[in-house]
Specification:
Structural class: alpha/beta
GO molecular function: glycine dehydrogenase (decarboxylating) activity
Distance between the termini: 45 Å
Number of helices: 16
CATH class of the largest domain: Alpha Beta
Oligomer: single chain
Order of helices and strands: HHHHHEHEHEHEHEHEHEEEHEHEEHHH
Shape: globular
Strand content: 5-15%
EC number: 1.4.4.2
Catalytic activity: N(6)-[(R)-lipoyl]-L-lysyl-[glycine-cleavage complex H protein] + glycine + H(+) = N(6)-[(R)-S(8)-aminomethyldihydrolipoyl]-L-lysyl-[glycine-cleavage complex H protein] + CO2
CATH topology of the largest domain: Aspartate Aminotransferase, domain 2
Number of strands: 12
Keywords: Oxidoreductase, Pyridoxal phosphate
CATH architecture of the largest domain: 3-Layer(aba) Sandwich
Enzyme class: oxidoreductase
CATH superfamily of the largest domain: Type I PLP-dependent aspartate aminotransferase-like (Major domain)
Radius of gyration: 27 Å
Number of domains: 2
Strand order of the largest sheet: 1-7-6-5-4-2-3
């Protein structure tokens, strides 16, 4: 049995065989937390309210006809409930988060401190512009950094996330096509693209045509050329692509697309791998969204909404949507209305009413300024180094669909190494939960059967990567040695055992219903 430095055993005991069941269902600090509806009572509240003064009902037929039935809890009950839930939630603050194509990196606390500064953390969208000039200048500086890093001409800061940014870029392309008086209604999308790419194109009226991928997941320029025609408006390409590889023929693809009169949209979800190393403008890209909450820290959902600014080449700059920042001699100006436009500015319209993701702008710029240009480049280099370190540590036991070639910021394995073991890809993922790890991205990209996509990011130290690699190696060897039951039962140590996820997805229960009353058995 493994021992720690104090001579105590480190191998966990199996609750089912070594520990008695407890009356509460709790296991020491692992608290069995019930639902709010099971804890509270809907006839009481933890807050005292005065009886309302006489008033006239104005809701008419929309007035509630029954009680709201929310559970009433005391303040300690409410606090404990959410603290206990947080302890059951895997986070980047509690361990390595290997999700591929998601870039769950450490969020430096200085970012949070900056986002909470008075004047930035408490501004309101309806304040007069004269009172938020500091925020406008911050947005202009953020835009300047994004343009410098990408080699592009203009930027739209308003999109709220990656898919929203895709929509922005493709709407600008559609506006540019119309401005030329052309009838282009086809968008080319590679097989390995993120699912939002074809969805975005289809949502605004384009017909999606799939570009087949090479065996390694990259796009063949000859396949693109074969599909180009006067009806093609754009190609949507991810680079580095979803298989974790750099599209080495991107310049040739861009040249062919431009020669056909179409535009090149780049999905910037994986920009984390090339910041400071390659400027997309020099690769021939016309529009690209940038997930600030991926590339420049703040993991998904942290601190509120995401942010997906879109950078445009000179070919599309005029069509950037309102509102946008115009830098003038006296400083940056927020252009909000068509009446404020100047010659050559022909925005396709407006995507949002306000820049509601201001906190994300502050966090991203804080990250950029604290790292500097050289630090951002090193972050990209370290992200690629870490992914290849994981690849090198597992390549003799786990199978790579693209062969043993250098990857970018994420490494892709498939489930071929599990053939004949009786262990499925899902079984492997569930066993990782028992080891204290969130599973890597499973079954994506779809072009690879049984895909396992790992993105460690630059945030992880060598020690944490070594433990992660050693853990996966142990799981692989256990699977190949015939210890199948361990995988089929996993997870054993999670708050809940394996659930019927298919049934849950197809028949979700979205409303809590009070269970039937029960009585204790007669003595």
């Amino acid at each position: 049995m493994a021992m720690n430095t104090q001579g105590r055993p480190t191998a966990p005991t199996t609750p089912e065989t070594s520990a008695p069941e407890t009356f509460t269902g709790n296991r020491a600090l692992q608290i069995e937390e019930a639902l709010l509806f099971e804890i509270g009572r809907n006839d009481v509240t933890g807050v005292d309210f005065d009886d309302p003064a006489p008033f006239t009902e104005r809701l008419g037929k929309h007035a509630r006809k029954s009680s709201i039935d929310l559970p009433g809890l005391s303040e300690p009950e409410a606090m404990r409930h959410y603290v206990r839930l947080s302890q059951k939630n895997y986070s980047i603050d509690s361990g390595l988060y290997p999700l591929g194509s998601c870039t769950m990196k450490h969020n430096p606390r200085i970012n949070e401190k900056m986002a909470r500064l008075p004047g930035l953390g408490d501004i309101h969208p309806l304040q007069p512009l004269s009172t938020v000039q500091g925020a406008v200048e911050l947005m202009a500086e953020l835009g300047r950094w994004l343009l410098e890093m990408t080699g592009m001409t203009s930027v739209a800061l308003s999109p709220k996330a990656g898919a929203h940014g895709e929509l922005c870029g493709m709407m600008a392309i559609k506006a540019a096509v119309r401005a030329k008086g052309e009838n282009r209604n086809i968008v080319l999308v590679p097989e390995s693209a993120h699912g939002t790419n074809p969805a975005t194109a289809a949502a605004i009226g384009f017909k999606v045509v799939t570009v087949p991928a090479r065996p390694d997941g990259t796009v063949d320029p000859e396949a693109v050329k074969a599909l180009l025609s006067p009806e093609v408006a754009a190609i949507m390409l991810t680079n580095p692509n979803t298989c974790g590889l750099f599209e080495r023929d991107v310049v040739e693809i861009a040249a062919a697309v431009h020669a056909a009169g179409a535009f090149f949209y780049c999905d910037g979800a994986n920009f984390n791998a090339i910041v400071g190393k390659a400027k997309v403008g020099e690769l021939g890209v016309d529009a690209m969204h940038i997930n600030l909450h991926k590339t420049f820290s703040t993991p998904h959902g942290g601190g509120g909404p995401g942010a997906g600014p879109v950078v445009f080449s000179e070919r599309l700059s005029a069509f950037a949507p309102l509102p946008f920042i115009r830098v003038e001699a006296d400083g940056p100006v927020l252009v909000e209305n068509e009446s404020e436009l100047q010659a050559g500015e022909t925005p396709f319209g407006r995507m949002v009413a306000f820049h509601g993701q201001m906190g994300m702008f502050v966090r991203a710029l804080s990250y950029m300024l604290s790292h500097g240009a050289d630090g951002l480049q090193q972050a990209s280099e370290d992200a690629v180094l870490n992914a290849n370190y994981v690849r090198a540590g597992l390549r003799d036991l786990m199978s790579q669909p693209s062969g043993d070639r250098t990857c970018m910021h994420e490494v892709l394995f498939d489930d071929t190494f599990l053939d004949g073991t009786g262990v499925t890809t899902l079984d492997f993922a569930k066993a990782m939960i028992d080891e204290g790890y969130h599973p890597m991205t499973m079954y994506f990209p779809l072009v690879v059967h049984g895909a396992m996509l790992i993105e460690p990011t630059e945030s992880e130290s060598k020690a944490s990567l070594d433990l992660f690699v050693a853990t996966l190696r142990d799981l692989v060897m256990k699977a190949k040695s015939g210890d199948v039951e361990r995988f089929h039962q996993a997870p054993l140590y999670a708050p809940r055992r394996r659930l019927d996820e298919t049934r849950a997805a197809r028949s979700p229960k979205l409303k809590w219903e009070k269970p039937e009353p029960w009585s204790e058995a007669a003595e």
